Amino acid sequence: MPTNYLWIKRSDAPRRSVGEGMVGAVDRVDDIRINHKLYEDVEFYDDISGKHLPKDETIKAREKEMAEVYAHKIYTKVPIKECHDVTGEEPIGTKWLEVNKGDEDEYNIRARLVAQEFSKGKLSTIFAATPPLEAKQALLSVAVTEGIGYGEGWYYKLDFIDIKRACFYAPAKRDVYIKLPLEDLTEGYCGKLNKSMYGTRDASLNWENEYIRFMTSIGFIRGLSSPCLFYHPGKDIRAVVYGDDFTLLGAEEQLNWFKTEIQLTWAIDFKARLGPELTDQKSIRLLNRIVEWTPEGINIEGDQRHAEIIINQLGLNDAKQ
């Protein structure tokens, strides 16, 4: 069965890479179009809220995800027999997860192709650390602590950076075979992972190893209380890493240096730079919370959108206040 893609290729432009010059540069995929006939009788729903999603917007989100899958060479197609010979099992299933990051007035649909590798017992080698919430809170506190975060004539700022599709930069460490998605189906073949894929048991650990490699390569020292904390003694930058989310505290010049370094390695989404100057941003959503820089200090409160989702999932929309 042939692939169900319609490819739109670049005309006469020279071949380039996504993030050309980056250590983690990936081959550019100009465009991918999925044959809409695949979804003639399909309805799409938000995997968190359960609300109906518009078909055209959801298909566009899947096209964007598959373009990244191809660009990063997440898997190589191999005969299913190879999977049987190596693992003695069938390929791991895959599925789509879709979430509307916007609202019903302005959709911002995120589609992710994920593996369905289920637990088959404890495996200590797949543990990935996460920092306690107090680590983030401590970093915010330091930002507004006199003598550490600011002083007469100087002050530090906070940067918030996300890595786009972080797992796609982490090499696979095991022989993992997945069922090809319907959009890329080839009869008799499966996909052998070259990179880590969301939904595999060691994806988070592989990514942890990747960001540790990067941070230590540019001079950071890992924390003793948590391996997700970092400090750069030469540039006085403090960092907390939560999954693909980086929060950093330092002088603006040094934060600019870090932003340049990380952009040379991965594709990033620079969320915000919070600080005391008028040109600095003053608030950001972080881990389902609102962080706000004010003249009196830094405030943290729950994200109202997250509270509304919880109320809806508990069926309490009509409950009395």
Name the descriptors.
321 residues, alpha+beta, 6-stranded antiparallel sheet, 6 helices
Write a compact overview of the structure shown.
By secondary structure, the chain is α+β, with helices and mostly antiparallel strands.
Could you characterize what this model shows?
There is one protein chain. 23% of the residues lie in helices and 29% in strands. It is an alpha+beta fold. The protein has a domain at 133-164 and 205-313. The radius of gyration is 22 Å and the shape is globular. Mean pLDDT is 87; it is low at 6-23.
Overall mean pLDDT stands at 87
What kind of sheet is the major sheet?
Answer: 6 strands, antiparallel
Distance from N terminus to C terminus (CA atoms, Å) equals 57 Å
Count the E strands: 22
Number of helices: 6
Order of strands across the biggest sheet?
Answer: 15-16-17-18-12-19
Low-confidence stretches: 6-23
How do the helices and strands follow one another from N- to C-terminus? EEEEEEHEHEEHEEEEEHEEEEHEEEEH
Helix content: 10-25%
Radius of gyration equals: 22 Å
Strand content: 25-35%
Form type: globular
Structural class call reads: alpha+beta
Fold blueprint:
Layout: E1 5-7, E2 17-18, E3 26-27, E4 32-34, E5 44-45, E6 52-53, H1 55-71, E7 75-79, H2 80-87, E8 94-100, E9 109-115, H3 133-143, E10 150-151, E11 154-155, E12 157-163, E13 177-178, E14 189-193, H4 203-217, E15 221-222, E16 229-232, E17 237-242, E18 245-250, H5 252-263, E19 268-274, E20 283-286, E21 289-294, E22 297-302, H6 304-313
Antiparallel strand pairs: 1-4, 2-3, 5-6, 7-14, 8-9, 10-11, 12-18, 12-19, 13-14, 15-16, 16-17, 17-18, 20-21, 21-22
